[in-house]
Amino acid sequence: MTVQIATAEQDREYVCRPQKGILESMLQLGYFRYSQSTKWKPALNVYEDEESFYLCVELPGLTREQIHLEVIEDTIRIKGERPLPPPPETATTACLLRMEIDSGPFERTLEMPPAADLSTIEAKLVNGFLWITMSKRESSCSG
């Protein structure tokens, strides 16, 4: 029986093949955002009833001190920075295999309709959701 000795190139290909497959499968998942230089945008919902507008901004893992809310004319700006969530303490160093949780600086701006009275804005953080409430202006139209 003859045993062929692998070349260095064949040896490297044998070792790297599994890692290459893992990397390719991760890139095929469609999640490709990671850059500390770009700001991510938190998801939000906007509701309204007869008297008010309500914004619900998804910001888990943040305290109210880490969130900055600004009103500029008819626009609301929510910004801040969320650190990368650390893994639990273990005896060895944990490696990040998949990253889908946005971290780093974020900013979301939303232009409000003319009916929104931004002088009445109130905000509270409840279970990872920033709730922003503002009254509607009284209609100047006579109906």
What's the short story on this structure?
With 143 residues, the protein is mainly beta. The protein has a domain of 86 residues: Immunoglobulin-like (Sandwich).
Can you tell me about this structure?
With 143 residues, the chain is mainly beta. The protein is 15% helix and 37% strand. The protein has one helix spanning 8-28, and strands at 44-48, 52-58, 67-72, 75-82, 104-111, 116-126, 129-136. The longest helix has 21 residues, at 8-28. It is elongated. The model has no long low-confidence stretch (mean pLDDT 85).
Structural class: mainly beta
For the largest beta-sheet, the strand count, sense and barrel status come to:
4 strands, antiparallel
Backbone shape: elongated
Assign the CATH topology of the domain at 36-85 and 101-136. Immunoglobulin-like
In total, the number of strands is 7
Q: How are the strands ordered across the major sheet?
A: 1-2-7-6
CATH class of the domain at 36-85 and 101-136: Mainly Beta
Computed over alpha carbons, the radius of gyration is 25 Å
Q: Uncertain segments of ≥5 residues (pLDDT<50)?
A: none
Mean pLDDT: 85
Q: Could you say what the CATH architecture of the domain at 36-85 and 101-136 is?
A: Sandwich
Which percent bin holds the helix content? 10-25%
| Secondary-structure element series | HEEEEEEE
Strand percent estimate: 35-45%
Work out the helix count: 1
Give the distance, in angstroms, between the N- and C-terminal Cα atoms. Answer: 98 Å
Which descriptors would you attach to this protein?
143 residues; mainly beta; Immunoglobulin-like; four-stranded antiparallel sheet; three-stranded antiparallel sheet; 1 helix; 7 strands; 15% helix; elongated
